[in-house]
Amino acid sequence: MTEQIPLSALELAVVVEGGDAGTAIESSVRVAQHIEELGYRRIWLAEHHNMEHIASSATAVLIGHVAGRTKTIRVGSGGVMLPNHTPLIVAEQFGTLETLYPGRIDLGLGRAPGTDQLTAMALRKNNMHAAFQFPDDVKELQQFLSGDNVDSKVRAFPGEGLDIPIWILGSSTDSAHLAARLGLPYAFASHFAPAQFRAAVSIYKREFRPSEHLNEPYVMACVNVIGADTDEEAEFLSSSLYRMFIGILTDQRQPLQPPNPSLALAWSPEVQQAVNNMTACTFVGSKDTLSRQLSAFIAEMGINELMATSYIYDLNKRLASFTILKEALQGI
Questions:
Q1: SS3 of 313, please?
Q2: β-strands 282-285, 42-45: how paired?
Q3: CA 284 → CA 136, 252, 266, distances in Å?
Q4: What is the pLDDT of residue 115?
Q5: From the CB of residue 148, how many other CB atoms can be counted at a distance below 10 Å?
Q6: Where is each Luciferase-like domain found (predicted)?
Q7: Looking at the chain, which terminus has fewer C-beta neighbours within 10 angstroms, N or C?
């Protein structure tokens, strides 16, 4: 029996039908506590804005809340959209989190706005070119967190000198070059943007330069997972996920809906094809089915860690899905 690949989870604090932001956040806490008991390595929260049914806009605040309700699991950002913030503010926020929860905080960085363009303008004001400054902003943030920043006139307290792992996040090939050049771990958003996953991983591994942070390339892939006792039940539960993606593509967003497979079939072939493209890295089934599917995926892509997100309407079934996933990965 080989050692199990590290397993982690992504949470967006998604509001379900009949719930609200408070219940969504509490559900994310429940997930964190549950997967901590199962031995998952980390749980990340994602930054989104102007999305009525996602409660993870104040990501650093939510990370602190989840870390305070757990004991050992790493908690981090998947990610902080750095162009929405100044590097100094991020260094101070995550320095504070690391001070409160030593050895448990991750800092995943992305360059996308995590929202629409109009909201991005509200976030960034006169700095709408911030995304082009992403590589320089990452380096500035690293400098603020470095112990070598002691002679600077601008310093991050708390933050300076703390060991906070920085990850580069990507949903295309762009950030793969940066992660490789800086010698940082790379996390890919294949749960919603799988099209360039293979190319991005290839670029990252080919161009990787060892650094003080990392000797060898380290890739984490985020995928959608719906696990249940049977394939049939998992397929039924997955209809909530597919309806969510249909809502995103048709701009008819709703709270996460109860499973109802028939409603997901009412859309045009074009929409269905777009959903299929977005969800190509989605794994649905029983323990045995997930084990077969994910074993092949992990071996083919050569990833070092798997991160799962699970859009299941019923919280208890979502918790059970994380348990089934853990069991499915035994020996992989």
A1: coil
A2: unpaired
A3: 40, 24, 21
A4: 67
A5: 11
A6: 20-304
A7: N
Q: Give SS3 for 241.
A: helix
Token code pair at residue 231: 């394939």
3-class secondary structure, 27? helix
Secondary structure E strands in the chain: 7-11, 42-45, 74-81, 105-110, 166-170, 186-188, 219-227, 282-285, 305-309
Asked if residue 108 lies in contact with residue 71, where contact means CB atoms within 8 angstroms, the answer is no
For 111-124, letters b (16+ CB in 10 Å) and e give bbbbbeeebbeebb
Residue type, 92: E
d(CA 187, CA 210): 17
Residue (of 188, 191, 142, 138) closest to 164 by Cα position:
142
Q: What is the pLDDT of residues 135-192, one digit of tens each?
A: 999 999 999 999 999 999 999 999 999 999 999 999 999 999 999 999 999 999 999 9
DSSP string, 192-228: T-GGGHHHHHHHHHHH----SS-SS--EEEEEEEEE-
Confidence of residue 268 (pLDDT cuts 50, 70, 90): confident
One-letter amino acid of 151: D
SS3 of the chain: helix, strand, coil, percent, to 5: 50, 15, 35
CB 322 within 8 A of CB 40: yes
Report the percent of the chain where pLDDT is more than 90.
85
The pLDDT mean for the chain works out to 93
Ordered domains of the chain (ranges, CATH): 7-229+283-328 (3.20.20.30)
State phi, psi for 308 to the nearest 5 degrees: -115, 140
* Contact in structure between 142 and 153 (CB atoms under 8 Å): no
pLDDT for 18-29, tens place per residue? Answer: 999 999 999 999
